[in-house]
Predict the 3D structure of the following.
Amino acid sequence: MKRLIVVWIAIMLVLIGEVFSLQAQERELLGAGATFPYPFYSKAFDFYYQQFGVKVNYQAIGSGGGIRQLINKTVDFGGTDAFMSDEEIQVEGNYILHIPTCLGAVVVTYNLPGQPILKLTPAVLVDIFMGRIKRWNDPEIAACNPDLSLPDMNIMVVHRSDGSGTTYVFSDYLSKVSVEWSEKIGRGKSLNWPAGLGAKGNPGVAGLVKQIPGAFGYVELTYALQNKMPVALIQNAAGNFIQPSIESVSHAADIELPEHTRVSITDTHAEYGYPISSFTWIIFYKEQNYGQRKREKAEELVKLLWWLVHEGQQFTKPLDYAPLSERAIEKAEKIIKSVTYNGEPVLQ
Amino acid sequence: MTKNRILVRILKDRIFLGFVLFFSLASIIPLFLIVFYIIKSGISAVNWQFLTHLPRPVGEAGGGISNAIVGTAILILISCLISVPLGIFAGIYLSENREGKLSYFTRLCVEILQGTPSIVIGIIAYLWIVVPMKTFSAFSGGVALGIMMLPLIVRTTEETLKLVPNTLKEASLALGVPYHQTILKVILPAGLSGILTGVLVSIARIAGETAPLLFTAFGSPFMNFNIFKPINALPLLIFNYATSPYSEWHTLAWGASFILVVFVLILNVIAKLVARKWKVQF
Amino acid sequence: MLKDKSGLLRVWGKFERSEFFFRKLLFFTALCMVILVVAIFLSLLLNSFPSLKKMGIGFVFGKTWDPVFNQFGALPFLIGTLLTSFLALLISIPFSLSISLFLGEYFTKGIFSSILKSAIELLAGIPSVIYGFWALFVLVPLVRTIQVKLGILPYGVGIFTASLVLAIMIIPYSAAIGREVIQLVPSDLKEAAFSLGATRFEVIRRIVLPYARSGIMAGILLALGRALGETMAVTMVIGNTNVIPRDIFSPANTMASVIANEFTEATGEIYLSALVEIGLLLFVVTTIINIIGRQIVKKMTIEV
């Protein structure tokens, strides 16, 4: 019996002792949030680990999750495509800063025989997602696509079931182009959807659309491309039907950014800009001495963020994300330099 | 006349037997389907690289589930460390005190705990450990799983010890052995097989639990031995990969399912063997 | 070594002291169980306060789950949970009853009995997430083809699929209890009937089943309790839609699956506490059902 107690204590000590013996615990960062940029972060952070030996554990639980966990201070940084409001960024005397990391597009993808390339106007989009257009061969859709013959199938709408920045961007766009949508449903990370099926994360929506014939959903561009799914051309404010791509997204992002970088670029007025583009941000606290955070942790975070907006940008284009413009990087640099520990800037 | 009536009754009897046989055998068809499907899809994924490598970023081929296997092992270790001593002692109390207010309420609470949905336990572990500690961790996952193991361990301990005849205890006490040594060195070893079976079966049960880990262990693409940091686990990996659209990840998930099912199966078989071979007959 | 009934010791020798402490240790661990359950209940209650205050009892009947406008109603999930659980129960009853009879009456020993018993145990041992995974890849396409044939929206996921996989998962639970109570039927009752010329079927119908009826009900109740709280397999195939389902082929959400989906990201105090309140509801409902079920089983085993 005594032996058992000794064994029990020994195991406990080993388990807990590892916490102290591994100095490497400081060289680990925890992040959570948007699935929108997850393929980019996943690749970039893997490279960062190979290069610098710092483990960056990013869990794609949705933008809502990223914001929540950062507010709870259970993660070092969050990822979100839905930027926070002026009230939201003030947390317990501290500020939550946003830096953009890349640009992406929320695309509309679908599952139809032959994988035709559809052209859609904002009005048709609204009608489909409100459940008013129920079948693929509806005249409204045919009007935008005169040279396609669409089958008489049900449209199976797929949306996000979790708190999603992608949903925010999409509903932000729909709210801008439709007064009815902005009044009835509004913009948000989780909506009271009038129609359709819910799936978790961008991967979940892509998965469902891929499997259900007649399905229609919105995902970030990379997810549609990676799964070889067709993507619709959306008519922008200038009247052109735009294909989502690195170029069209960059056109939409070609604007003057505010200092805090929190801006929506949907419904762009750029002539060849894709209307449902968005920045995605990483969020973190301005004053890094909260909880029991050590200075080394703050330094690691700042180093990671600096790398991400400079060398890290090389991973955007291969995955069909648009890299940050020079102006955006400038703004991000300023913000990273303003991160403090006990009032002193962390980055030298 | 009577012969006809008897024939009808015999016919009804045979038909009923047919129904019972049909439905009974039909119930195990899903079992074969599932096991067959897991083996078919999973075994092709299992190779040395699968077992020893870390997962690759999304979209890349290759990679393995080594961190999930280690993670599950660590979680099981933590939950056992918490629940086994606590559960066994509570079970001893119940078998030593059959009547009494506390016994009544303890048994009631153990029943309530057994029926509590695992997601509720996940909420509790999040509120009690993740939020105060300000981080997701293997520790919180282990606590959640430990709470789920408790009822089974308490009940099996109590049942097993109840079967040990009182005469053994009386004899030991009469010989002057102190009470705590009587329990720990005489009674407990006598019931060891049953208790061990209970522990093994509980482990088999929680090894596959996902819900409590969703907001406690959190998951990680790296190997992790630090119990106060997030950790990956087999069921988490299966859930995340299964609901993704990438077929490489699906294959990995099938492989992981295969490993998990084999593990659970082996535990159950060992539990049965222990129950039979180590049983002390009175 | 004198000890009186209350456990308090009068002679403070070395043995007595160790016994005292040991008994106190045992007492303490048993107390821990009670404290644990009470603490769980209180935690859930306390963390539901913001939501309880704002929406009151209307929460249970509210139809809208709208995080944007902070309107939360649990009715869609209550209905989703009840529909899937009861449907699963209905589907599973013939199967579990047959297994109980098979193992309890027809083949109580022997090779067939062992095979079926092992198979059922294995069925109970497969983790929930693997059931969900299998259902996602096998049941969902199957249901989709049925839906296409019937001419309804081919979601594939939805209440029906979730009930199917739930039914498979709960069969072992009611089967096990059913078997126990059927075996408890006194053999002299059955022998008497047989000696009067009754067939197997008639004995089962008129003696065994009525006698074991409450026990079988208890087994079904316990299976229901299990179905109500089942999370993973259901989350993966129910369609994750926060509206009241229109029919059994609609996608929906259950109390457990909405928590699983939205808990880590509930921004806003009311949102999070609404989810905790759902957890509280779930806890209370499953507790009540489980207790009733076990009380009945206990009464049955004592009566004999």
Summary: The domain at 2-103+279-345 of chain A is CATH 3.40.190.10 (D-Maltodextrin-Binding Protein; domain 2). The radius of gyration of chain A is 22 Å. Chain A touches chain B at residues 1, 8, 11-12, 15-16, 18-19, 22, 25, 28, 30, 32, 38-39, 42-43, 46, 49, 55, 57, 59, 72-75, 199-201, 203-204, 206-207, 210, 223, 226-227, 291, 319 (CB under 8 Å).
